[in-house]
Fold:
Amino acid sequence: MDSEKEYHIGIARGEIPELVLLPGDPDRAKKIAEGFFDNPVEIAKKREYWSFKGTWNGVPVAVCSTGIGCPSAAIALEELVKVGCKIFIRVGTSGAISHKVVSGDVVIFSGSVRDEGTSRQYVPIEFPAVAHPDTVTALTKAAEKRGATYHVGIGHSKDAFYSEHPDYVADPDSTRKKWAAMRDSNVLATEMEAAALFVIGHLRDVKVGAACVVIGENVDQEAKIVGKPPLDDLVTIALDAITSM
Structure:
């Protein structure tokens, strides 16, 4: 059986349900399984990939962490598709770009700015990174049902977490101009995985969406995270959405 398991995630076909939440943090995967799933069971734990399965309102679901960033998230998605998974929703955290977005809000991504390197090794930069429309609709309906404060729109994906802060880069003025341009273009929030997941999802003909809770200050301000809002709304929205599809 071990020879049939995918190299990085340590999962074989038939071991995991088709509906999968994708947090970055392995510990968050465990918390989602234990805090939200009925009858949670660990599937595998290997590298940054910690996976569990259970049910939500009687529907089989799974969660698998992706680690930080597009390269490791791309590996997770590719191998999960190989073992038969069909619908994915990234659940994570993001930093506000738009002044309309504040800490604790949920952002549902309809697409993402491809300011990262992984997706460029799959398709040219002109190719759009868009969420599957069914996931956007399902997430929006679930957020409305939950009564959460949410926003739907374009996100931003990057490779370097601290590069968003002008004091951490070699050219602070260009960084400030970049974030001002993003804000003027109505980009809502920044994170580190969605763009590659959207592109690969399209290439592999599976449904991929993303929803994040906003943490911290606006990206072009001080480099710090101010508290961590609870994930109850985000995870409940994602589970309601993915099991409705």
The two ends are 31 Å apart (CA to CA).
